[in-house]
Specification:
This protein is an alpha+beta fold and 770 residues long. Helices cover 54% and strands 13% of the residues. Keywords: DNA-binding, Membrane, Transcription, Transcription regulation, Transmembrane, Transmembrane helix.
Length: 770
């Protein structure tokens, strides 16, 4: 009987139609559910990956900063004369010599995160510590657990070990420590080590945590560093996670049967591996429910279809009427019923899918802008570039690309009348106008890596020929007309692939920099000629003359040198980037002079930034420099008449006349008939440096002249510049010039310039030219 009924139903035309429609609707619902789930999962991956990587990077920077500060101390100690003297001393002299370095260790160990700093001597296995002083052998130290691995420092430049405090101090019992060790190397041999014990809890208390994620820190050997208590997962499970993620920036893993997104980053300072696990169960809960509901609806639709077939054959088959009407609205079907309930279900599912697609589309411009910013600033690698390109730029071609830079002319003058909120609003309006202007013919992405303007990545739509220079010229005119903003535009050469956009951006910068000579409101395209011409070195003697004129209050001489420099630069057409750097160096020196002397800053330097120079043309730069020289010359001229200035000049003259003698602060104070405290304060205020440092610089500069211009022995030169001991002279010279006197003299034989030329002293006091 059942077989007969099925055969009868399948032969019926309307029954077959309902069956096909039922299966189609069920398949459609299933596909929409699975597709929505997949799209949501992909979007969630993209949105979660970036903030978690950024959080890990923040924590990485926190730990790196702490270790870098301690590492710098360890490195400085490994070269400190007192430490080296202790390392090289005989065992019988250890106690006598240990006093000075121990005082220095205690001074450095005052930071809250440092428990102790120790100097470990390999020759006789003695130790000197900031906490318990000198011990003749390692075993006598209250805490010598490090002795089992400290010898590894002979093979490695840096060791970081997690360990428990095992010393006799009851207050530190079982305290977790992170021990950082640096070798002391002399003549290619490791003769000792610097050991800094850091507080484990204090270091990791600075890490930022997220309520919904778990964070772990592993060392190079795969040992767990953080956390130390209340581990959320068994270590065996975490070892499987480490194997799964390997060296990938993120991956999906399962721990104890639960799904997690794992993100990781590596420290280039400690070699540590930072991992975060974000549980996906709650994040995917809603979309999983929605997917299951759609699958349930698909099943329900099949049941409804089967019920409809049954009702048609045994109850007039009324639902088919509505289905036929939906499928063929122009034809009138008669004698059939209604399946009206299916229509709102399908409409709701399609509406939900469109809503989620719209949210993803709205977030895409920000993701693309961040990608372009990271690309041109070289913040992402090749693999990450390719991955993000594939995800963020669907619908774009593989190439070519155009890169332009839109920069606001005279940015400092333009921004001065506006508060920061108004500046941002105007730049936002400029960005919108730019995007809308290029939209009809170009695919467009903008980014703002610098304060003075925007970078625009363009790709033409279709195969129609478009002249970018003409579009850019019209854009300049439009921004001037609508926003009253004068801009200049630089255009780089076309990039055949996304990897070459960075090169195109650099070329656009070079093209834009020729605003220096050509003026404002122009569009400039890069050419090889811009890169190759005028590569000759610039003569910076004018800068020294301007500084000298300022210090001498010779306003006319300063203005003359500025005009001379501007005319020479304009005539030679020096590459703009070189001009910008030279002007920036000059302004930095002028700022140092003004600040060191406590003088009021000219209005042009009150809020000086690099963009103040790079967005100006040569004429305005010349005018700005002249204004600064006029204002500072007048103020410095008044200052030169002060009693304090004359006293400082007298001290300097006395030091220069007595370099060969063993003079000190007391002698200088006696020369000007003042107290030591008053002399120190006046000299510091007038020159920006101490008497001792100034005298040392004078002696080393004089020694440089003698080393270059004579064949005198080092001992004789040391006496002529006030050092009674040759070794003291060598140490002072190396500390000041980062090179020994012998190597300095040797390098001067093969070059007309110093290997490390003495730099002019940046002070507010200069020699009188009168």
């Amino acid at each position: 009987m059942l077989r007969f009924k099925l055969k009868f139903l399948l032969k019926n035309k309307q029954t077959r139609l309902i069956l096909m429609l039922t299966l189609s609707v069920s398949l459609l619902i299933t596909m929409i559910g699975l597709f929505s789930y997949g799209e949501y999962r992909d979007a969630l991956d993209s949105e979660l990956n970036t903030p978690n990587i950024e959080l890990l990077q923040i924590n990485l920077d926190v730990t790196n900063r702490a270790f870098r500060e301690s590492d710098n101390k360890a490195v400085d100690l490994s070269f400190h004369p007192a430490v080296l003297k202790y390392i090289n001393a005989k065992t019988v002299d250890n106690v006598e010599i240990s006093t000075e370095p121990q005082t220095y260790l205690r001074t450095l160990a005052t930071e809250p995160d440092i428990h102790a700093i120790s100097v470990i001597k390999f020759k006789d296995h003695s130790i000197l510590s900031s906490s318990y002083g000198y011990k003749a052998t390692w075993e006598l130290a209250p805490d010598y657990a490090w002795s089992t691995w400290i010898e590894e420092i002979k093979e490695k430049p840096l060791l970081i070990k997690r360990r428990l405090y095992t010393g006799t101090d009851s207050q530190l019992g079982n305290t977790e420590l992170l021990s950082l060790a640096r070798p002391i190397v002399q003549n290619g041999q490791v003769t000792g080590a610097i050991l800094i014990d850091l507080d484990y809890d204090w270091l990791f208390s600075k890490m930022y945590t997220h309520l919904s994620s778990y964070q772990f820190v592993y060392n190079l050997d795969g040992d767990l560093i953080y956390p130390k208590l209340n581990l959320p997962f068994p270590l065996t499970e975490m070892n499987e996670v480490l194997s799964s993620i390997d060296v990938s920036p993120f991956a999906h893993v399962k721990v104890e049967g639960q799904a997690y997104m794992a993100n990781q980053t590596f420290s280039n300072v400690t070699g540590w591996r930072l991992i975060s696990l974000v549980p996906m169960e709650q994040l995917l809960k809603n979309v999983t429910i929605a997917r299951n509901m759609m699958l349930m609806l698909s099943l329900i639709s099949i049941i409804v279809g089967c019920s409809a077939i049954y009702y048609y054959n045994f109850a007039a088959f009324r639902p088919l009427k509505r289905i036929n009407k939906l499928l063929t609205p122009d034809q009138r079907a008669a004698g059939h019923g209604n399946l009206y309930d299916l229509e709102p279900v399908i409409g709701k599912l399609v509406g939900d899918f469109q809503s989620k697609s719209r949210v993803a589309e709205w977030s895409m411009p920000e993701l693309r802008s961040k990608f372009v910013h990271d690309l041109i600033t070289r913040s992402i690698g090749t693999q990450e570039t390719e991955t993000k390109w594939e995800h963020y730029f669907l619908g774009w071609e593989a190439g070519p690309f155009e890169t332009i830079i839109v920069s606001i002319d005279r940015h400092a003058q333009w921004s001065a009348p506006y508060i920061e909120e108004d500046q941002m609003l105007l730049k936002y309006a400029m960005n919108n106008i730019l995007v809308e202007y290029f939209e009809p013919s170009w695919r467009t992405v903008t980014a703002a890596p610098q304060k003075d303007g925007l970078v625009v990545l363009l790709q033409p739509k279709g195969q129609t020929s478009i002249i970018l220079h003409e579009d850019a010229t019209k854009l300049v005119e439009m921004l001037q007309e609508l926003l009253k903003i004068s801009v200049s535009i630089g255009i780089g050469r076309s990039a055949s692939s996304i990897a070459q956009v960075t090169r195109s951006y650099t070329e656009a910068q070079l093209a834009l920099s020729h605003r220096l000579y050509e003026g404002y409101g122009r569009v400039r395209e890069y050419s090889a000629k811009l890169h190759d011409e005028n590569t000759q070195a610039m003569d910076d003697s004018w800068k020294l003359e301007v500084i000298h004129a300022l210090k001498s209050s010779d306003m006319d001489a300063g203005l003359l040198w500025i005009h001379r420099w501007a005319a020479d630069t304009r005539k030679k057409g020096i590459q703009p980037q070189r001009v910008f750097r030279m002007v920036d160096d000059l302004l930095e020196e002028v700022l140092d002079i003004a600040v060191a002397g406590g003088h009021s800053l000219p209005v042009e330097l009150a809020d000086y930034t690099w963009y103040q120079v790079t967005t100006m043309d040569l004429s305005e730069i010349e005018e700005m420099l002249c204004s600064i020289v006029v204002q500072l010359s007048k103020e410095l001229g008044q200052h030169r008449q002060s009693k304090e200035y004359q006293l400082a000049q007298s001290m300097i003259q006395y030091m220069e006349n007595n370099l060969q003698h063993n003079i000190g602060l007391q002698d200088i104070a006696s020369h000007v008939s003042m107290g030591i405290s008053s002399v120190s304060n006046i000299f510091k205020e007038e020159t920006g440096t101490t008497v001792y440092d100034y005298l040392t610089n004078l002696r080393i500069d004089k020694a440089c002249e003698l080393l270059q211009d004579s064949n005198m022995k080092l001992a004789d030169i040391a006496l002529l510049v006030g050092y009674q001991n040759e070794n003291s002279f060598i140490r002072a010279f190396r500390k000041n010039k980062s090179i020994t006197p012998g190597k300095f003299r040797e390098s001067s034989k093969y070059s007309n310039e110093y290997a490390d030329q003495p730099k002019p002293r940046q002070t507010s006091v200069s020699d009188d030219s009168e």
